[in-house]
Design a protein that fits this description.
The chain is of the alpha/beta class. The protein has three domains: 5-92 and 270-289, NadA-like (Rossmann fold, 3-Layer(aba) Sandwich); 96-178, Rossmann fold, CATH 3.40.50.10800; 181-265, NadA-like (Rossmann fold), CATH 3.40.50. Helices cover 46% and strands 16% of the residues. The protein has 15 helices and twelve strands. The chain has helices at residues 5-24, 36-41, 48-57, 69-78, 101-110, 124-128, 139-145, 157-166, 180-183, 187-196, 210-213, 222-231, 244-252, 274-283, 292-307, and strands at 26-31, 44-46, 62-66, 83-85, 115-119, 132-134, 150-154, 171-174, 201-204, 218-219, 236-240, 257-260. The strands form three sheets. The protein has a four-stranded parallel β-sheet, with helices on both faces. Strands 6-5-7-8 form a four-stranded parallel β-sheet. Strands 10-9-11-12 form a four-stranded parallel β-sheet, covered by helices on one side. Helix 1 (5-24) runs parallel beside helix 14 (274-283) and helix 12 runs parallel beside helix 13. The chain is globular, with a radius of gyration of 20 Å. 44% of the residues are buried. Bound molecules: iron/sulfur cluster.
Length: 309
Amino acid sequence: MVKNTLFTDEEKLKEAIIRLRKKRKAVILAHNYQIFQIQEVADFVGDSLELAKISAKVDAPLIVFCGVYFMGETAKILSPQKKVLIPVAGARCPLADTITPKKLLELKNTYSEAWVVSYVNTSAEIKALTDVCCTSSNAIQVVKNIPAKRVIFVPDGNLGWWVKKNVPQKEIILWKGFCYVHQNFTLEDLQKQKSKFPHAQVFVHPECKPEILQNADLILSTSGMLREAKKSSAKEIIIGTEEGLIYRLKKENPDKKFCPLKRAECVDMKKITLKELYLALKHQRYAIELPPEIIQRAQSSLKEMIKYI
Ligand code: SF4
């Protein structure tokens, strides 16, 4: 009989991870877009801000954040006394990397009276130069409620377009960054899936292009999709976001069918494998280090968000 070495290797790795997690008193956090094997060994699975808040609350000296770099940084900003590891230091978010401190400072100089509102998909340095942070689910509310008539919104241009449409009373200067995973969905893809599943409800992430947003039933963050999928009476739901979320949607709603808008994989999110997670725990690598003044200023822009929602 041929031995299934892949399966046994995976099981062995999982056991080793669980053993090391206990030994190191660590908590493993996994973003909704991680591969399912990582989601299965994680203590918590969620979106970036949910997980960063959990990292601040849990009583553990070591956090292993399975996600992209800015997510690990956000966890470190909210719990600076803890050691935060990211299993693959090169797992980055190309959207977050579109805006640099130099470019943001230039915008701030041009529009000196404007407030900077940054989506959480930004580096710690950008958060430190920000007035208020926002998430994809509260961006409209934040921009509406802040006492500024002019707003610089970074880094996602599609989310910014959606905010602008919903807050027409304010002048919003958009940074035209985008997430290539969501940008890749086309109207043609959506129409194709709609004709294949004519009774399906359509959930899309606000990082999708305007023509996708305008043709969806609901525009939702990943946690919003998980919440609404449970409530929905539809038996079929078309999902316009990174495909990693489908695993959790199916697990939590076994009676429903989830149809991806099209194959959509974030290469950086998939860089973290069980082996990388195991090595991170074993060697306690790669720790996120941030200067105290960056932590302090970035923390303030994250805390400001609570005031305006
Ligand atoms: S899915 Fe898009 S926004 Fe999320 S980490 Fe990947 S590139 Fe960044």
